[in-house]
Design brief:
The strands form 3 sheets. A 6-stranded mixed beta sheet has the order 8-14-13-11-9-10. The protein has a 5-stranded mixed beta sheet with strand order 5-6-7-2-12, sandwiched between helices. Helix 2 packs across helix 3. About 1% of the residues have low confidence. Helix content is 41%, strand content 20%. The chain has 3 domains: 52 residues; 147 residues, Chloramphenicol Acetyltransferase (2-Layer Sandwich); 252 residues, 2-Layer Sandwich (Chloramphenicol Acetyltransferase), CATH 3.30.559.30. The chain has 479 residues and is an alpha+beta fold. The chain has 16 helices and 14 strands. The radius of gyration is 24 Å and the shape is globular.
Length: 479
């Protein structure tokens, strides 16, 4: 990095002789970048100039969603999981460079959460690219990718995201697992879009793209764009809306054979598109359709067809933010409950019941904002250790839940002009009997998954559950 230091010195010293301290700071940072694994001197200079303008502190604020997500350590491993498939092998050096640039601009990815009993915080850590990226060849790409995904991320690790490029000569899978405290599915979509853009720009121009998300991670961003009166009322929505559903899928009792297990199932584009068309004819959304399919499968597995069932559904609070791209990488997800009185006689009737339940929820102009002021009050009026204990008493870990990540932008996530050919998403490894499913679509195909701490009998049970899920989608279209 000698040339990079000389280039930085030349630029700064020609601008002003008083910049000598800045030159030394920049040189030290370039040495740090080299130690972390950056080999491109031009990119090092770009990052050094950027760092001089936007210095990074050693501590980052622990936001409200960070604290709430840390509470979930009692129910899951708090690791989110995702992979993207390509019909080629990306350039490893360009990928390393893009990841390093993103990590330098968003230091929360190389920070460790410190649950201080009074005031928790993120401690920014040193790291190397080898702490983040693993490159491996494999004959069975999908098996290798799943094995990587089923691992966790240690809370004390200097990198809170792990990325793997699993490849053979002609194909590859880009695999991600990360501490869910850092960001949710919506945040990850921003992250992977930025990473792909940085990779492509570097490949095309040799320059680093530093256009990453550096905005606020605070929960209060959901209020910023609301009209004054609505904002005032939104901050008074202190009543919780959680429904404690006691019914659970028939997991086995713990027998010591449990391990992180991802179970997933794909439904073809033809089946999905036909079901979506009928849903739209009945005034239902894709989320209504997916919720109805989950509820149908749950009824079949539990055997409680004449009883009410309540499904917890994820709600992205970015709906209240005019420009979500201006946020930092963070969480903005809450839940609503879809409730049906019993299993309907026909698939369309069940879909209609789900549609009506969700419409009632969506009619609430403060959808998803209930309870946030109460959480804020708890964490601000008490020391962290007290608030963590109190909030835990009222926290409802839904055992029947669904999160729709939505469509994967196969074109927007393209690398070197190669579009995404397939994708998979999975949430944290939940303790039984939690069956929180995640869904996405890519190129029209739908994939549903559950990540659990289970055994082979649990895997077989979830496979049966997914078969009922698809059966419902197939039964919706007219014969």
């Amino acid at each position: 990095m000698k040339n990079a230091k000389m280039q930085l010195s030349s630029f700064l010293m020609s601008a002003c002789a008083a910049e000598v301290p800045a030159v030394e700071t920049g040189k030290k940072y370039i040495d740090t970048l080299a130690r972390r694994g950056l080999t491109d001197e031009n990119v090092a200079v770009q990052l050094a100039f950027d760092r001089l303008n936007t210095p990074v502190t050693e501590k980052l604020t622990a936001e409200l969603y960070d604290k709430v997500n840390h509470l979930c350590r009692r129910y899951m491993d708090k690791v989110a999981r995702f992979y993207l498939c390509y019909d080629f092998v990306p350039d490893v050096n360009a990928l390393r460079t893009a990841i390093l640039c993103l990590y330098e601009k968003a230091p929360v990815f190389h920070s460790v959460f410190v649950p201080h009993p009074i005031r928790p915080f993120w401690r920014v850590c040193d790291y190397t690219i080898d702490d983040v990226l693993t490159v491996m060849q494999a004959e069975d790409l999908q098996a290798a990718a799943i094995a990587f995904l089923e691992q966790s991320v240690a809370p004390e690790d200097p990198s809170q995201m792990k990325i793997a490029l699993v490849h053979n000569e002609n194909e590859s899978i880009l695999v991600f697992r990360w501490n869910h405290m850092i960001m949710d599915g919506g945040g990850f979509k921003q992250f992977v879009s930025d990473l792909c853009n940085a990779y492509n720009e570097y490949r095309q121009t040799g320059n680093a793209s530093l256009a990453f998300r550096t905005g606020t991670r605070a929960y209060s961003a959901v209020y910023a764009d609301l009209p004054k009166e609505k904002k005032r009322k939104a901050k008074l929505q202190i009543a919780g809306v959680a429904v404690r559903e006691k019914k659970v899928l028939p997991f086995t009792a713990k027998n010591g054979e449990e391990k992180n297990t991802i179970v997933y199932h794909a439904v073809s584009e033809e089946v999905v598109s036909a079901a979506v068309a009928v849903a739209k004819q009945n005034g239902a959304t894709v989320n209504d359709l997916l919720s109805a399919a989950y509820i149908y499968a749950a009824y079949k597995m539990i055997g409680c067809e004449k009883q009410p069932l309540h499904l917890s559904c994820a709600v992205d609070l970015r709906r209240y933010i005019r420009n979500p791209a201006a946020l930092g990488y963070t969480n903005h997800t809450t839940f609503m409950y879809c409730s049906v009185p019993q299993l309907s006689e026909s698939p369309v009737q069940l879909l209609t019941a789900v549609r009506d339940s969700n419409r009632k929820n969506k009619a609430d102009e403060y959808l998803g904002l209930h309870g946030i002021p109460l959480l804020h009050f708890a964490y601000c009026s008490m020391i962290y250790a007290q608030a963590d204990a109190v909030v835990r008493l009222f926290y409802n870990n839904a055992n029947i839940a669904l999160s729709n990540v939505g469509p994967v932008d196969s074109e927007g996530f393209a690398l070197d002009g190669h579009r995404v050919t397939d994708a998979l998403v999975a949430g944290g490894a939940k303790e039984k009997p939690c069956a929180a499913a995640t869904v996405l679509t890519v190129n029209g195909k739908l994939t549903i998954s559950v990540c659990t701490k289970g055994n082979e009998k649990d895997r077989a049970m979830l496979k049966e559950f997914f078969a009922f899920f698809e059966q419902f989608l197939r039964s919706i279209p007219p014969k």
